[in-house]
Amino acid sequence: MVHDDRRKARERRTKERRIGADRRDDAAWQPVSIDDASPGSPDADLVLHAAATEARTRAQAHYSHFMVGAALETVGGEIIGGCNIENATYGLTLCAERVALVKALSDGHSIFTRMAVVADTEAPTPPCGPCRQLLWEYCGDIDIILGNLNGPTGRFRLSALLPMPFDRRLLG
Prior knowledge:
Radius of gyration: 15 Å
Structural class: alpha+beta
Helix content: 25-40%
Mean pLDDT: 84
């Protein structure tokens, strides 16, 4: 029963989000408030949050000591985790969100439904600008679940976090 409910919710989210060629239509420019974000089941959010929390434990944050974990859900329900990996030059640092995305893409996944991001903060810690851009390019308008070590703290559509994205429509 629970498995069927999760599958139906995943199918609904897949239909609701823009995928494939229509992912970058004009509606993508319109922000969606957190109140309008499509809710996932609380249990599914907790599973994704737990995966991001676990990924965070592997962060390589020797310089900033700011450990972040991310978990990206594929349309098939697989969860791919990522953690931030710092470098002494900082410019070569990889954010947890990008690590999860690149792992998923390199494993052959191409359609995603949502991502959780976890940091040890009181306030929600959203993806940085470059991460938002890459998530938009490869994931479309997915749900972003933000959380801290105590649990989820907010849910946003990516379009609310990146209201005027640059994408292939602007390349002519």
